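Lab notebook, bench 4. The sequencing result for the construct came back, and we need a structural model before the next group meeting so we can plan mutations. Quick request posted to the team channel:

Model the 3D structure of this chain.
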Amino acid sequence: MLTTNDVAQVFDTILSIPGMNELVKIDLKISRKNVLLLNHVIERGLLIKVDDKASNLLTSVPEENLEELRSLGGECLSKAGLIELSEKLNALSGTTK
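Done. Here's the predicted structure in token form:
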């Protein structure tokens, strides 16, 4: 059985493969509901890194890559016109960005 450290090393190795930093264009059409859910999943996943460093693969990911994920979620919300709704839902649920 692989330890958490072993899995993190494999994950880090995969992220280091040549070409992994190359930009790709993705033409994606999803519903506003799924944009809202995607942003929530990204935000929630990134919070796990802060709360539970020992058991998360994201601990080996550079902060700049995590910030790119946050940006992606925000960009999706913006393109779908859901920034204000997302902020209000976060306020209702007591979560903050």
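The first helix runs from residue 4 to 15.
Will bring this to the meeting.
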